[in-house]
Design brief:
There is one protein chain. It is built from five helices and no strands. The protein is an all-alpha fold and 179 residues long. The chain has a single domain, classed as Up-down Bundle (Ferritin). The longest helix is centred in the last third of the chain and has 31 residues. The radius of gyration is 17 Å and the shape is elongated. The two termini are 28 Å apart. The structure holds MU-OXO-diiron.
């Protein structure tokens, strides 16, 4: 059975992950308004993946006899200056999420909650991939600069991202690449 302290921290993290999904969905909408549908597709996939992350905490709490209590979700930003600015914001956000995961791991160690540590190990690995994805896009968009043909080419490349599993139904996620 999960203890209250860990349960409350995981409920808070469900909110962080759903906010991430909300933020990336807002970014997807913005990309579509500036006619970059490939980038929009990539962000829709990212938003779906974040719901999956939220559901991992949701399922973990329930599987251990805990109580899910969903927190309030803040309104995300809905306008950006450029594609580069969007991915820079995404990177800052992912660094924040890494910090949240690290703090949860500190708590799980302190509480001697081995099941929670197991779950969080997956997230520690996942966050390396998440930050790397955003860092790579920031670097690429800096290289592209104001070159419109290169931006359109990158937009096409972004359509190749495959959507993940159904976050509401699938309880066993694919391991992060390299895990
Ligand atoms: Fe759920 Fe992008 O971290």
């Amino acid at each position: 059975m999960i203890k209250n302290k860990m349960q409350d921290a995981f409920n808070k993290q469900i909110g962080e992950e759903i906010y991430s999904s909300y933020l990336y969905l807002s970014m997807a909408a913005y990309f579509e308004t500036i006619n970059l549908k490939g980038f929009s597709h990539w962000m829709r996939c990212q938003a779906q993946e974040e719901m999956f992350h939220a559901m991992r905490f949701f399922n973990h709490i329930l599987e251990r006899g805990g109580e899910v209590s969903l927190p309030r979700i803040e309104e995300p930003k809905h306008k950006w200056e450029s594609p580069l600015n969007i991915f820079q914001d995404g990177l800052v956000h992912e660094e924040h999420i890494t910090d949240c995961i690290n703090k949860l791991m500190d708590l799980a160690v302190e509480e001697k909650d081995y099941a929670a540590q197991n779950l969080l190990k997956w997230f520690v690995t996942e966050q390396v991939e998440e930050e790397d994805n955003f860092m790579e896009m920031v670097a690429k968009l800096k290289m592209i600069g104001g070159n419109q043909p290169s931006l359109l080419l990158q937009d096409k490349e972004m359509t190749t991202r495959m959507p993940g599993l159904n976050p509401w139904l699938d309880t066993i996620p694919a391991a992060p690449v390299g895990a």
